[in-house]
Amino acid sequence: MTPDESAPEGEASLADEPEVRQALAEADRASVASVVAGHPSSPLAWAELADLADSEGQPIEAFAFAAVAVDLAREQLAAAGWQPGEPVPWSDEPNRAYLRALDAQRRAALALGLDDHAAKLAGELASADAEAPARIASEYTPTQLMPIVASTGIFAPATGFEAHTGEPIAEPTAVDAAGED
């Protein structure tokens, strides 16, 4: 990237979206859709929603959300002079929305049994940036989006337990100063 935060000459780049990044950083899982609603033309917001759906085991939703992100990103890249098949470098952070969306759509296609479509998306991702698939796998795995504590009440207080009493514990005996009883 050049000092003015744009892609080097000849490489197209998505626009940076600091307000979307900030909104997503402040959002919890339940409010990612509201970030999308507030920024409906943001490939980044849609890519986050796709990753979230993927992490929740919803391949149809993940596929649809990723498709929107990919389409929006392609439109923005084309407006910046990009042609399909040209590089979209991972090193330019705004481009990661497009690359992540391609991969989310690929994963969803695999889960849905759309193997040919998944292979096409994998090829498009690799031709955009050969490093991207490995980076996404290590930095944006679905498990990284999963909550640490489930919100389904798994850790709610238990009810219906019977109180059980055992034998009383014997009082400890004190040892005198000489170490004898």
Explain this structure to me?
With 181 residues, the chain is mainly alpha-helical. The protein has a single domain, classed as Alpha Horseshoe (Serine Threonine Protein Phosphatase 5, Tetratricopeptide repeat). The longest helix has 21 residues. The N terminus is likely disordered.
Task: Furnish the topology, listing elements before pairings.
Blueprint: H1 18-26, H2 32-38, H3 43-55, H4 59-79, H5 96-111, H6 115-128, H7 132-139
Helix pairs in contact: 2-3, 3-4, 3-5, 4-5, 5-6
What quaternary form is this?
Answer: single chain
Number of strands: 0
Q: With helices defined by DSSP (H or I, 4 residues minimum), what is the helix count?
A: 7
Q: Which series of helices and strands comes N to C? A: HHHHHHH
Instruction: Give the CA-CA distance, first to last residue.
Output: 79 Å
Taking all residues together, what is the mean pLDDT? 81
Fraction of residues in β-strands: under 5%
Largest sheet: none
Rg, Cα atoms, Å: 26 Å
Task: Please give the CATH architecture.
Answer: Alpha Horseshoe
CATH topology group: Serine Threonine Protein Phosphatase 5, Tetratricopeptide repeat
> Which regions contain 5 or more consecutive residues with pLDDT less than 50?
1-8, 143-164
Q: What's the CATH class label?
A: Mainly Alpha
Alpha-beta classification: mainly alpha
Helix amount: 40-55%
Count of spatially separate domains: 1
- Write down the overall geometry: globular
Which terms summarize this structure?
mainly alpha, about 50% helix, about 0% strand, Serine Threonine Protein Phosphatase 5, Tetratricopeptide repeat, single chain, disordered N terminus
